[in-house]
Amino acid sequence: MLSTCIQHLKSQPLWILILSSLGFLSLYKHTFSLLKLVFITFLRPPKNLKENYGSCALITGSTDGIGKAFAFQLAQKGLNLILVSRNSQKLRSVSSEIQAQYPHTKIKVVVLDFSGDITEGIRVVEEAVEGVEVGVLVNNVGVSYPTARFFHEVEEEVWRRVVRVNLEGTTRVTRAVLKGMIERKRGAIVNVGSGAAIVVPSHPLYAVYAASKAYAPLSLSLSLSLSLSFITWNMKEKTNTLKANTLYVDQFSRSLHVEYKHFGIHVQCQVPLYVSTKMASKLASIEKSSFFIPTPENYAQAAIRRIGYEARCTPYMTHSIQWFFASLLPESILDSWRLSIGLSRRGKIDIPY
Ligand SMILES: NC(=O)c1ccc[n+]([C@@H]2O[C@H](COP(=O)([O-])OP(=O)(O)OC[C@H]3O[C@@H](n4cnc5c(N)ncnc54)[C@H](OP(=O)(O)O)[C@@H]3O)[C@@H](O)[C@H]2O)c1
């Protein structure tokens, strides 16, 4: 049987053999990746967060959407909570809801508006974590523009708010919590990134948001150059200010992952695509969940299973499938597609030449 196969192969022209080998290798690679994805998503046991990292979790932006869902599910796993968000009434209401469902959970709340001067708020966070075994930090808080806009149309206050909340907030809360984790030699930090910065090559008309979730020079300049192919406008000065300010979520996470793994601290960037939250409703008119768009509860459940493993992951299975298909398309097609979406969301057809 084997010798017949070999004879048959020998009788084929060389180009057929080369093409078949390439096809076989590609099939093998994709089958292996698919099996790995199924294993990671459904079969690999999640880490015991309390035992591995500590008894308490701190979550920013925890009064709605993904952050609130994280809070409920971490309470279900037996962790106490420090909830950080801007609205004291919503914080009280979320903590009562959690306590009604999980009466043993100890909850502290910190009212902190990340869009302003957060020095005093960070001092309160430092006080709140003092003497508490914060094992899991979820840097979830994040904002974008209210509507799609060319960069030069975005009011200074709006882009500054995105930079402050997404970058300064994540960076300073991480520093506040890291000290205790280093002393205890254990901890897990989850930074919530976005597919806007990583899955697609650009996110035109949301340039500062996408850049804030990735590494500035790449995402910001790609998104801006797409927008700018429609207009002539000198924004050199503003771009330089932004480049200096824009740290990253993805790059920040990857570098910290390498820096702190020897301290027993696991840093991870999680990359969601659309999740049916208030943010998705405002930005993309997504009002309900679907096969590709999970509820925040389903998303958080998948996200918690991934804590402590990869340095970067897309926790929700159908998001990974979308990422795979996006990776098959040429960047120019993805760029044009994202630009057309941005323009249609901008809602005005008059392009500001
Ligand atoms: N939803 C998606 O499709 C999607 C996709 C990719 C990435 N993400 C990322 O996931 C994270 C969570 O998004 P989400 O969709 O859950 O958003 P969301 O539904 O808008 O919830 C955001 C949370 O952050 C709080 N918050 C907003 N601005 C704040 C500020 N200045 N100071 C303190 N807290 C503030 C909100 O408080 P209030 O309750 O007071 O509003 C709320 O608790 C973000 O980092 C976002 O970039 C989301």
UniProtKB/TrEMBL annotation:
Superkingdom of this protein's organism: Eukaryota
Protein name in UniProt: Very-long-chain 3-oxoacyl-CoA reductase 1
Organism: Camellia lanceoleosa
